[in-house]
Amino acid sequence: MGMQKTLRALADPIRREILNMLKEKSLSAGEIVEKFDVTNASISRHLSVLKEAELIRDTRKGKFIYYELNTSVLEDIMLWISELKGEDSHVEEV
User: Fold this and answer.
1) Would you identify the CATH topology of the domain 3-84?
2) Strand partners, 67
3) Cα–Cα distance for residue pair 34/65, rounded to 1 Å
4) Are the CB atoms for 49 and 15 separated by under 8 Å?
5) Helix (H) / strand (E) containing 28
6) Which of 61, 68, 75, 87 is close enough to 82 for a disulfide, judged by CB 3.0 to 4.6 Å?
7) What are the residue boundaries of the structural domains of the chain, listed by start?
């Protein structure tokens, strides 16, 4: 995992909001763009950064691309943070 890429991706509030949106369900780029007052090109760039950091995955369905959350990278970050804090090195499963 590229920790630096992941943390850089998480630093932007728009990208964090995109991740929040994707925790509910997978969305197309068009559905994501509708929620923001920025250009399509800007959202496309944010999606590229999130994808490069492996925080999201994309799947083509017909002529649309749908994005979904990749929770494994987030779990790795949470584990690293808990280890940094000196907490147990395991993540409890619910």
Assistant:
1) Arc Repressor Mutant, subunit A (1.10.10)
2) 27, 58
3) 15
4) yes
5) strand 27-28
6) 87
7) 3-84
Q: Which two tokens stand for residue 49?
A: 């950064």
**48-72: b or e for each residue (b if 16 or more CB lie within 10 Å)?**
ebbeebbbbeeeeeeeeebbebbee
Task: Report the alpha-carbon distance of residue 63 to residue 41 in Å, rounded.
Answer: 18
Dump pLDDT digits (tens) for 62-85. 999 999 999 888 888 888 888 988
Greatest distance between any 2 Cα atoms in the chain? 47
Output phi, psi for 44, to 5 deg: -60, -40
pTM for the predicted model, two decimal places: 0.82
* Tokens of residue 19, six digits: 């991740």
